[in-house]
């Protein structure tokens, strides 16, 4: 009933392609987040599903019905927007029931639906309040209740929490998850806040320049990003990227090499590759634990430290000339590495340190196409104590 399918859907505005050949298969009851940078086509995708914008090409289905050219009211979808437009002169009951009254539902049916919706969003006892007597979060719940009473097969939510303060946003996230469980309805949710996407959705659809980059459960996008864009977009702070090439014995770059047999990964020596490693997969080690695998050591100097409470971000310089730019920590930097360490770690700025990478968490991408080559590099089994044995980590 609430399955949503987009087949080769595009939307062009003059010379702008807002959505480019999008294919989506959303199952009934799924909670899907559309994420991506501003202008990537999230809202346009949503508006096309709602019927507010007609695609230039492609077909759309909701359930087994083709809806490509159907008006919004015939699609069985309800939308909740970022800007909550409640009628200021109507109380909560009238605001929630407005659409039903307009469609001449009988009084008892309206009462039954409003009561159920109020219960789901926990607004019982507030039905006689006026909008200006409510908090931002409560008003947003009225807007959601107004969508619920329509019994839609699909909920479309476009940044519904964007105007709420940080604490309320976190609270409303939990409420939306509860709501989804209770209603068991498809929810398609647009957000640029990846914490929202990671915590709430069954699957995340990552979009860039109107094109779908990956659609997978949050942890798959995090652990096995399909390409450089997804790897850099999902995760905060961003993954470290270093450009290099495949040498006869593995990845080789200005300051960091990672040994492996190129044949194992099916890459030709000479290929330009970008290595990615997340800050939490870089480990501080002491000389003693390095005795068995000197080839894995990376010597660095600590630069800026950012204590976050539950972890410390340590900006490492891999060369004398490296400069930490806190304004822009995304993208490729061959002489820097961001590491995350436990909050009680004894570490200071301008200190010589040695770190290792968790090889099982090293990502390799084809620099030319951006496509992922591998996630994690197996460490060959070696005789004990021989160089190349895996470093100890507490992972
Ligand atoms: P997002 O929601 O991800 O921020 P949008 O879907 O709003 O992105 O926009 C995608 C692209 O399409 C942007 O470049 C935007 O400027 C363009 N666009 C969106 N709506 C229109 C429109 N009505 N006319 C012209 N260009 C538009």
From TrEMBL:
Query: By its UniProt entry, which SMART domains does this protein fall under?
Result: AAA
In the UniProt record, does the keyword Transport occur? yes
**Record's catalysed reaction(s):** D-xylose(out) + ATP + H2O = D-xylose(in) + ADP + phosphate + H(+); L-arabinose(out) + ATP + H2O = L-arabinose(in) + ADP + phosphate + H(+)
What topology does it adopt in the membrane? Answer: Peripheral membrane protein
Tell me the enzyme class: translocase
How is this protein annotated for GO cellular component?
A: ATP-binding cassette (ABC) transporter complex, substrate-binding subunit-containing
Domain ABC transporter spans what residues? 4-234
Q: Which organism is it from?
A: Haloferax volcanii (strain ATCC 29605 / DSM 3757 / JCM 8879 / NBRC 14742 / NCIMB 2012 / VKM B-1768 / DS2) (Halobacterium volcanii)
Against PROSITE patterns, the record matches this protein to: ABC_TRANSPORTER_1, ABC_TRANSPORTER_2
Assembly information from the UniProt record: The complex is composed of two ATP-binding proteins (XacJ and XacK), two transmembrane proteins (XacH and XacI) and a solute-binding protein (XacG).
Q: Which family does it belong to?
A: Belongs to the ABC transporter superfamily. Carbohydrate uptake transporter-1 (CUT1) (TC 3.A.1.1) family.
Q: Which molecular function terms from Gene Ontology are attached?
A: ABC-type transporter activity; ATP binding; ATP hydrolysis activity
Record region (Disordered):
373-395
According to its UniProt entry, what is the function of this protein? Part of the ABC transporter complex XacGHIJK involved in the uptake of xylose and arabinose. Responsible for energy coupling to the transport system.
Subcellular location(s): the record lists:
Cell membrane
The family database entries (InterPro entries) matched by this protein are listed as: AAA+_ATPase, ABC_transporter-like_ATP-bd, ABC_transporter-like_CS, ABC_transpr_MalK-like, ABC_transpr_MalK/UgpC-like, Mo/tungstate-bd_C_term_dom, NA-bd_OB-fold, OB_MalK-like
Q: Does the keyword NADP apply?
A: no
GO annotation, biological process: carbohydrate transport
Could you tell me what this protein is called? ABC-type D-xylose/L-arabinose transporter
Q: Which domain of life is it from?
A: Archaea
UniProt keyword terms in alphabetical order: ATP-binding, Nucleotide-binding, Transport
Q: What Enzyme Commission number(s) does the record list for this chain?
A: 7.5.2.13
């Amino acid at each position: 009933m609430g399955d949503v399918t987009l087949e080769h859907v595009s939307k062009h505005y003059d010379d702008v392609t807002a959505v480019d050949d999008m294919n989506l298969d959303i199952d009934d009851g799924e909670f899907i987040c559309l994420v991506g940078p501003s202008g990537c086509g999230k809202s346009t995708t949503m508006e096309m599903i709602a019927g507010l914008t007609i695609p230039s090409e492609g077909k759309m289905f909701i359930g087994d019905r083709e809806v490509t050219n159907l008006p919004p009211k015939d699609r069985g979808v309800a939308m909740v927007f970022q800007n909550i437009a409640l009628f200021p002169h109507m109380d909560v009951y009238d605001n929630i029931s407005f659409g039903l009254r307009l469609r001449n539902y009988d009084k008892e049916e309206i009462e039954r639906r409003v009561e159920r919706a109020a219960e789901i969003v926990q607004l019982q006892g507030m039905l006689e309040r006026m909008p200006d007597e409510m908090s931002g979060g409560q008003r947003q719940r009225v807007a959601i209740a107004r969508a619920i009473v329509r019994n839609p097969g699909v909920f479309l939510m476009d940044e519904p929490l964007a105007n709420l303060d940080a604490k309320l946003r976190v609270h409303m996230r939990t409420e939306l998850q509860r709501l989804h469980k209770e209603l068991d309805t498809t929810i398609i949710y647009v957000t640029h806040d990846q914490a929202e996407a990671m915590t709430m959705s069954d699957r995340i659809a990552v979009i860039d320049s109107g094109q779908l980059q990956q659609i997978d459960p949050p942890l798959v996008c995090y652990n096995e990003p399909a390409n450089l864009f997804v790897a850099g977009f999902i995760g905060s702070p961003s993954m470290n990227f270093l450009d290099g090439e495949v040498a006869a014995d593995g990845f080789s770059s200005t300051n960091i090499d990672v040994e492996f047999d190129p044949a194992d990964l099916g890459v030709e020596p000479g290929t330009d590759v970008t290595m990615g490693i997340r800050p939490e997969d870089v480990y501080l080690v002491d000389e003693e634990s390095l005795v068995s695998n000197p080839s894995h050591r990376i010597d660095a100097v600590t630069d800026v430290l950012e204590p976050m409470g539950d972890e410390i971000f340590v900006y490492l310089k891999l060369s004398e000339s490296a400069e930490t730019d806190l304004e822009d920590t995304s993208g490729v930097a061959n002489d820097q590495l961001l590491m995350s360490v436990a909050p009680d770690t004894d570490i200071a700025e301008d200190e010589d340190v040695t770190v290792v990478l968790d090889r099982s968490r090293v990502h390799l991408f084809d620099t030319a196409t951006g496509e992922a080559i591998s996630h994690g590099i197996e460490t060959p089994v070696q005789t004990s104590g021989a160089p190349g044995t895996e470093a100890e980590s507490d992972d």
